[in-house]
Design goal:
Layout: E1 35-46, E2 51-64, E3 68-81, E4 86-98, E5 103-112, E6 115-127, E7 130-137, E8 141-145, H1 152-164, E9 169-170, E10 173-174, E11 184-194, H2 203-206, E12 210-219, E13 229-236, E14 241-247, E15 251-262
């Protein structure tokens, strides 16, 4: 899933392509599941700042487009400030990511109280020696990607693959297309990988292995030890996540998987 925005450094969540130098990211047969998931977001804690209340929903859908993954994510948040003003924020995020990790087309559109707040669009490509991002909005510019950078679905696969191997942590670079400043560094802690049954109200998930994961996102090349954004979740072996813990800085929210719908069997590629 992708990072939320509005000036909160965005974050998403997926190995490796072309045998990158880090053996922890070695390719493993991880079968991701096309699906649609809806999460209810509730306020857990207020840790300072102007926000005193928050609620929301997040919808995430991934489709198998044969040679690529198509994803759509919509995040809706309503916050209340100390002065009593109510703010409605909506982030719509969509990508088309080649399964071989070579190409990512992305678009992120954010609105505040129904008014446009930001739009980020473009395309990124990767090769064994590195790649580049070609932004078209909010302004046309190009940023270089270091070798080994992962796109979102590949980042998810890398996490699950590491969990299945019993690995405790990994730190790949990620570009997800939610911001105009290029890739972010991520540090992922995998807090155990457990065999089924898993405690879940959804039978299709309860029979899968799963593990608790914590992901911290950092500005690339920054020496600041404080992450821009953090998210915790339980990942299932098919790439579906639940039990979200989203840290927005001055408040934290919990995400409960309200509905989960596996994609129906479609055409064969």
């Amino acid at each position: 899933m992708a990072r939320p925005g509005w000036g909160l450094p965005a974050a998403a969540l997926v190995a490796v392509l072309w045998g990158a130098a880090d053996p922890a990211l070695a390719e493993a047969p991880v079968a991701l599941a096309p699906h649609r998931a809806v999460y209810d977001l509730t306020l857990v804690a207020v840790t300072g700042g102007d926000t005193i209340s928050a609620s929301g929903t997040m919808t995430y859908a991934v489709s198998d487009a044969c040679s690529a993954w198509s994803t759509q994510q919509q995040l809706k948040l309503q916050t209340v400030s100390r002065s009593g003003s109510v703010t409605e924020m909506v982030s719509d995020y969509a990508t088309l990511e080649a399964k071989d990790g070579h190409d990512l087309v992305f678009q992120t559109v954010q609105t505040t109280n129904g008014h446009p707040a930001s739009r980020v669009t473009g395309e990124a490509t990767m090769t064994p020696t590195g790649g580049e991002i070609r932004y078209t909005q909010p302004r046309a510019h190009t940023i270089t990607l270091p070798a080994g950078t992962l796109f979102p679905m590949a980042h998810t696969r890398a996490i699950i693959s590491a969990g299945e191997r019993g690995q405790a942590s990994l730190a790949p670079s990620l570009f997800d297309g939610t911001g105009e400043d290029g890739p972010q560094d991520t540090y992922i802690m995998i807090l155990g990988w457990h065999q089924p049954p898993t405690a879940s109200p959804f039978p299709a998930l309860a029979r899968l292995p799963s593990g608790r994961v914590h992901v911290a996102f950092y500005t690339a090349a920054s020496h600041d030890m404080r992450p821009d954004y953090e998210i915790g979740m339980r990942y299932f072996a098919n790439g579906v996540s639940d039990d979200l813990d989203m840290d927005f800085g001055d408040f934290r929210m919990h995400g409960t998987l309200h509905s989960f719908t596996p994609a129906p069997e479609g055409h064969r590629c």
